Amino acid sequence: MPLPRSLGRFNRRVTNPVVRSFAGRLPGFGIVVHRGRTTGRQYRTPVNAFQRPGGGYVIALTYGQGAQWIRNVLAQGGCVLETRGRRVELRTPRVVHDPRRQPVPAPARAVLRLIGVELFLELDQRPPAAG
Question: CA-CA 20 to 30 A from 123: which of 30, 44, 98, 115?
């Protein structure tokens, strides 16, 4: 079972502003930049993000697939991920259920197992625009 929504609300107001200050630079973290479906407002959501060996990224859905940021990314067909000091354009988002947690590195897999995370958002990296 993913983390409770009440913890998500607390994190959104208290923890996320702190985490955003370093999440775009550390391995295993990132900031998803996305637009609200109805407001059009830009949001910056810290996440646990891991580069996939074949390209693209996978994000652990620690609160399940109903979080607003996930719905926004699915609706707009992608997002920008700020990770390790760079911005990566991502597209073709899809929610993947994997009880073995294979998309993430072993140390993260152990933590995600403890909190019951089995859902992930996989995204492909958008090729750079031809200049």
Answer: 115
- Give a yes or no: residue 15 inside a domain: yes
Rg (CA), the chain: 14
CATH number, domain of 24, equals 2.30.110
Counting every residue written for the chain, the total comes to 131
pLDDT tens-digit readout, 36-87 = 999 999 999 999 999 998 889 999 999 889 999 999 999 999 999 999 889 9
What is the total count of domains within the chain?
1
Residues facing residue 90 across a β-bridge:
79, 125
pTM: 0.81
The answer to whether the CB of 64 falls within 8 A of the CB of 119 is yes
